Amino acid sequence: MITTDTGGETPHSTVGAHEESGSPDHTVQLLSPTGDRLDDAVYSARAAHLDRAALEDLYRDMALTRRFDNEATSLQRQGELGLWPPSLGQEAAQVGSARALRPQDFVFPSYREHGVAWVRGLDMRRLLVLYRGRDHGGWDAYQHNYNVPTLVIGAHTLHATGYGMGIQRDGDIGTGDPDRDRAVVAYFGDGATSQGDVSEAMVFASAASVPVVFFCQNNQWAISVPTAKQSRIPLVHRGEGFGIPSVRVDGNDVIACYAVMDEALERAHNGGGPTFIEAVTYRMGAHTTSDDPTRYRSRAEEEHWRQRDPIARLRIHLEKSGTAPEFFDRVEAEADRLGEDTRAFCRALDKPDPESMFDHVYATSNSQIERERAWFRDYEASFDQEAQR
Q: In the chain, which end has fewer C-beta atoms inside a 10 angstrom radius, N or C?
């Protein structure tokens, strides 16, 4: 039995001594805030193979994700981006869970999963294009099995469930072939659980035993609304209500996030159906760069979670395990290069042809889009006609 305090000001984030491993009310934690490895009767074995070299890779993933995110935030403040959704503080939930994925698994992100994009091999700089207003922000989703960000909160959980039903019908689950069996992961925040789409997705996923993992990053705040005001019970129980196996994990513990995702994916790959994961973490920055979190949360709360920083936690553990200072110096130098490349990439993006907004809206020609394109072309031409008068 593990007793932890994953804290904050919402009662839904605390873990009591009565909570046994394997119970939804238990929060899985394999690395304490002081950097010590912990035992869990159910999940320790799933992370036993993560040696120091593997943990150093996880540290690098998180550190580079944070540096990219900080650069993007700065670029918005400098007027180079119209908006940016920071992921500061959520690196462990994203990197740990994404590292458990197989190459053929497919990810449906929301708009804050920068760390997942990095682990899936996507050039994170490509995320900037949407927020620069250069284009709709799309890419070949099948190159990395990583879909485009979804700005409509919660809508993509239905997309993920539908995609998982397709995997089912293709017979790509339960074959025992690790190169064939596939699963789907939908990432979303605590605020999305208040959307009807998420509930509908879980209805279909449960009824049809769809190979989908619902990964909820409970960062404590749906913009300015705390989790406790969204739900009278811990969010992990949402899955239970639909008959979906559910687990709550310390979302600032990268090792535990890997372990719980590994179990969920094994269930999905083997034909066991969906899983709901609540990763209890904290949004250390603003909801987006248009938000001012000082208006709705306290400095004491922010400091409480700052002491549970996921990157600092793993660094302490690595230092205790013998990782040399030179490793951290190399990662910092790589992060500096990434920051420089990110700034250069963003500032080099040219202004798009305004008419390109009509491109790639649908896969094939669409009569409504073509009418709108024609109207816009005439509208632009009217300015030239006015200037010639």
A: C
Task: Provide the mean pLDDT of the chain.
Answer: 93
- Is residue 4 in a domain? no
Please give the residue that has the higher pLDDT: either 314 or 389. Answer: 314
Whether residue 134 sits in one domain with residue 95 = yes
At residue 20, the pLDDT reads 62
CA 356, 360, 366, 368 dihedral sign is negative
d(CA 135, CA 360): 9
Mean pLDDT of 165-191: 97
Are the C-beta atoms of residues 239 and 245 closer than 8 Å to each other?
yes
Task: Identify the domain containing residue 335 by its residue range.
Answer: 11-348
Domain assignment present for residue 63? The answer is yes
- Residue 104: what residue type? Q
pLDDT score of 363: 86
Tell whether 1 is covered by a domain: no
Q: Give the CATH number for residue 179.
A: 3.40.50.970
